[in-house]
Amino acid sequence: MLQEIHRICAGINCYLIRGREGFALIDTGPAMARRRLLRGLERTGCGEEDLRLIVLTHGDVDHIGSAVQLREMFGAQIAAHQIEARALESAGRQSNRKEKPDLTPWFFQALMPLGRLFGGVDPLALDLILEDEQSLSPFGIDATVLHLPGHSGGSIGVLTEDGDLFCGDLFWNMRRPRLHPLIDDLEDARASIQKLRGLPIKTIHPAHGKPFPATQMASV
């Protein structure tokens, strides 16, 4: 079944998948871009009670900022990996990363103190814990959850049966496809890429930048 996919640019790329029984949203963007996200949902025909599931690829504030509000508005369940759950439910949100990540570019270090401007920093309780290779078919979505640590310990991706991979922040494509500049564990990131090489992926959809063919993953 060819599933309908919509990319909504709301601070980051948020991806809306139309399933058999409603919609699933992958990431929600930062709180300050909520109006853009809501307009995007409206344009795609996702109304009240249509949004069934919100998948958070990881717990960074630019990915989770509207999750609680969408749950209140649409009644959707919020889901993430167990490692991210501990970070989301705590005030510090640092249990999903090492004290000193393997790769932290200077511009990320400079911007981190400004993270509060994104909003969405309140503790967030999940409705559903996702595991590696878990099917989303109970939500009418023909897709599988993949644990893809690297950017953070509990980062996940979603791979549809049609070959679309929503990779969160494992990759980004601002100028060319590459690893995200902030990598918590480089060995984990390389293992995640190796894991993906054996899967039937056609297109990779990052949170930052345009989607790109899976064949370009070989150059990352």
Give a quick summary of the entry.
The chain has helices spanning 34-43, 61-64, 67-74, 82-88, 106-111, 186-197, and strands at residues 4-10, 12-19, 22-26, 51-55, 77-81, 128-130, 143-147, 156-160, 164-168, 171-172, 178-179, 203-206, 212-213.
Order of helices and strands: EEEHEHHEHHEEEEEEHEE
Radius of gyration: 16 Å
Shape annotation: globular
Total beta-strand segments: 13
Count of discrete domains: 1
Biggest sheet: strands, sense, closure?
6 strands, mixed
Mean pLDDT, to the nearest integer, reads 91
CATH class categorisation: Alpha Beta
Beta content comes to 25-35%
What low-confidence regions span 5 or more consecutive residues with pLDDT below 50?
Answer: 116-120
Query: Can you tell me the CATH superfamily?
Result: Ribonuclease Z/Hydroxyacylglutathione hydrolase-like
How widely separated are the two ends? 30 Å
CATH architecture: 4-Layer Sandwich
Write up this protein.
- The protein has 220 residues and is an alpha/beta fold.
- The chain has one domain: Ribonuclease Z/Hydroxyacylglutathione hydrolase-like (Metallo-beta-lactamase, Chain A), CATH 3.60.15.10.
- The chain is 21% helix and 26% strand.
- It contains 6 helices and 13 strands.
- The chain has helices at residues 34-43, 61-64, 67-74, 82-88, 106-111, 186-197; strands at 4-10, 12-19, 22-26, 51-55, 77-81, 128-130, 143-147, 156-160, 164-168, 171-172, 178-179, 203-206, 212-213.
- The strands form 3 sheets. The chain has a 6-stranded mixed beta sheet. The chain has a 5-stranded mixed beta sheet with strand order 7-8-9-12-13, with no helix packed on it. Strands 10-11 form a two-stranded antiparallel sheet.
- β7 and β8 form a beta hairpin.
- It is globular, with a radius of gyration of 16 Å.
- The chain starts with a strand and ends in a 7-residue tail after the last strand.
- Mean pLDDT is 91; it is low at 116-120.
